[in-house]
Amino acid sequence: MNYDELYSNIVRKGSFLCVGLDSDPELFPEHISALANPIFEFNKAIIDATAQYSVAYKPNLAFYEACGVAGWMQLAMTVEYIRKTDPSIFIIADAKRGDIGNTAKLYAKAFFEKMDFDAITLAPYMGRDSVDPFLTCKNKWAIILALTSNPSAEDFELEKLESGQPLFRKVMEESMTWGTKENTMFVVGATRPEKLAEIREYCPDHFFLVPGVGTQGGSIAEVAANGMNRHCGLLVNVSRAIIFADRSDKFAIVAAEKAREMATEMAVLLKTLL
Amino acid sequence: MNYDELYSNIVRKGSFLCVGLDSDPELFPEHISALANPIFEFNKAIIDATAQYSVAYKPNLAFYEACGVAGWMQLAMTVEYIRKTDPSIFIIADAKRGDIGNTAKLYAKAFFEKMDFDAITLAPYMGRDSVDPFLTCKNKWAIILALTSNPSAEDFELEKLESGQPLFRKVMEESMTWGTKENTMFVVGATRPEKLAEIREYCPDHFFLVPGVGTQGGSIAEVAANGMNRHCGLLVNVSRAIIFADRSDKFAIVAAEKAREMATEMAVLLKTLL
């Protein structure tokens, strides 16, 4: 998917919601746990319930890899199911990979060819070698960790360099020269909204994938006010506050309700701010 | 495996060689490619040929994940086969993971419980949250990327902070306070041997996993001279220069020969420097 397609999907659906498929089997309702492919069945119910309110899904790979081969299979099934349900949905592998040269090429193959993901999250620590191989795949995206939403983002990401700028800004400014707004996004957490406005000044055009809304405390309105650009430029990710809002056999109905509420708020913000 | 066991295996075998199982199917001899589980069969031949000269194996997960479910299964088969061949061997998942909280816990479960790895490589960008969950597993290890062997380590790892110190040093000094030499190692590349001596001064006791010897140009003697401590403190990884030293049907014989040469050099260095 390219930049214009993503933007027009956002406008058409009136939503910049990304549903995080952090599908932890320990939190599933009993009747789902009893099924043959519980992760896939859980995801299928969530996708059926939320696809009309979302422009993106983001499976976090840890939850799948923790289940070994069975988890890996259900990840592939999930990606196929999203594609079948709504081909306009942007699918992100939240893999936080970061490796070099040939190894990075193989990750690109795994996520962009073996499975039909649109984007993959990448850790920038090892530098350009670990990002470049993902930038050569047409209509595929590298989403680079910049300022994450966790408390220990302070350990290194916010560490000041000799220039006086924090590390995450160096990561953004440097990696903006490797790719373009057509193939690069950044992870910028919702938990530091004041930073978001600052970041928009030196990174006006790129999309940001914004975690940290919901359970972690960030707000959609604040993220939009500080981070939206003239092509929206935001994918706000919500995981637990949608998929585990209810843990009974009504989980999908409640997930739909939560996603609908958020999409309604987003539609208003898009009309007001775009 | 704990620190003392690892050290005594090094002394007993007279080797600190880690064989990197960067098992790229595109480089396999034809008779291997024709088999049902080519990655596993290739690894099995390499393990049979090199186990007596090695104290560790390090599958790089990209090569397995690129083959999807089949690759993931062959990774599990490889770990089991190493354990069966020689239970004293240290097995490293070169995964370069880095995620937070619950997600990191699930990675720990995937690599330390579902599969019987001894250690996992981790990217430190997101800070302590992304490392802590790996430090609570008894006799398991977190191997944190510090100064990697690739050229673009210069992009961020060598970037100077306000303190005047490079980022990788901050990463090491900070993370040395999270764990101990019993559960934490660092990745320090062989391609900058002058840095290795400098690093040993402020990190005297920890093991280093050292990539970059062989194809990337680092030398075993230089690494040992600059990086060895009184418990050896080194696992020198060699991948392509062993496993793809020959690509005919004699690949395993040549791999054994290369590993034997390196282990012989290491035995002399251990006698001289320990």
Fold and architecture overview:
Chain A has 274 residues and is an alpha/beta fold. Chain A has a single domain, classed as Alpha-Beta Barrel (TIM Barrel), CATH 3.20.20.70. Chain A has twelve helices and eight strands. In chain A, strands 1-2-3-4-5-6-7-8 form an eight-stranded parallel barrel, surrounded by five helices. Chain A is globular and about 55 Å long. The mean pLDDT of chain A is 95. Chains A and B meet through helix 4, helix 5, helix 6, helix 7 and helix 8 of A and helix 4, helix 5, helix 6, helix 7 and helix 8 of B.
Q: Name the pair of protein chains with the most residues at their interface, and give those residue counts.
A: A-B, 55 and 55 residues
The N- to C-terminal Cα distance of chain A equals 21 Å
Radius of gyration of chain A: 18 Å
Provide the CATH top-level class of chain A: Alpha Beta
Number of domains of chain A: 1
User: What is the H-and-E element order of chain A?
Assistant: HEHHEHHEHEEHHEHEHEHH
Instruction: Pick out the low-confidence regions of chain A.
Output: none
Approximate shape of chain A? globular
Please state the structural category of chain A.
Answer: alpha/beta
Average pLDDT of chain A: 95
- CATH domain topology of chain A: TIM Barrel
Oligomer: homodimer
Determine the strand fraction of chain A and express it as a percent band. Answer: 15-25%
Helix content of chain A: 40-55%
Give the strand line-up of the largest sheet of chain A.
1-2-3-4-5-6-7-8
